[in-house]
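Structure tokens please, single chain.
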Amino acid sequence: MTIYDIAQEANVSVATVSRVMTGSAKVSEEKREKVETLIRKYDFKPNALAKGLSETKSKILGIMVADIRNPFYATLFMECEKEAGKYGYSLILYNTLSNPDLEVTYLEKMISMRVEAVIKIGGRIDDVVTDMEYVEQVNKVANSIPIVITGKLDGADCYSVRIDAFQATDLVMEHLFSLGHTDIAMIGGSTDTQSTVERYMRYKQQLRRRGIQIRDEYMIHHDYYDDRGGYECMKNLLLLEDRPSAVIAVNDFTAVGAMRAMAEAGIRVPNDMSVISYDDTIMANIMIPKLTSVSYNYENFGQMIIETVLKAINGEEQPRLKTIISELSARDSCGPCTKK
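Here you go.
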């Protein structure tokens, strides 16, 4: 019998068992009684080494990202790492390369590495339909250590720090409307991904509110959130006889591929067609022309994630859901509508 067994049977974290054993006041009476009952039941007496390990913090956080090659994930990881370092914590990075099977494997590895909490950015937490078997596996880990995610995982005992996709899309649409655009396309992203679905949903809502026809041919999805996906979406869009005057890409990576396809077709940005995107990564500033993109203030995003993690580790009360509000970084890729 170990402290981990006690924690699992009591359905509490290892930290809670440790606090009960050390007489800490930061434990509810209900949880204290559960743990003490099991300690008496099994006559649990941890040896000196095990007791020392349970009371010593590793000062390590595990962070799992969908694809570190995507500048969005790389930038957010960097900000989390910087903020965690201020409190003496180190981060171990696990890159799943969008492989769902690796997510479970890496969760198990993090436990064996004695991380104090898990941060999950992208991947299965962004699924429109939650996999309940995966939720069960996540909750097993959450019984021992806190988990903070940046998406949605129905039924999971996690904290969430999420981008408000509706508010972000409102910024995009209002900017294009202000420039006189009404023939607006949206490209990229999968219908299986929650944030993408929310962006397309708000895009259509905004068009309806202004009495603008929703055109199915102006909405082109793709499984890959990279330049290849953007290139292929734009090539299909350019086959249309009646082309849009502005295009929304689901992220900067997609916008890069789209603008390459436009350049090959002799379409000038923004003279002939405007392009706007989400994420405001380093790509936005190095594109020619510079890309107008939705920004999430990555420094604040990283701070909010780490703040949530540390409060969870210390057992402090806090909201289960926190929201990131976006801003628009207007650059050179959007201009007044010239379509007649």
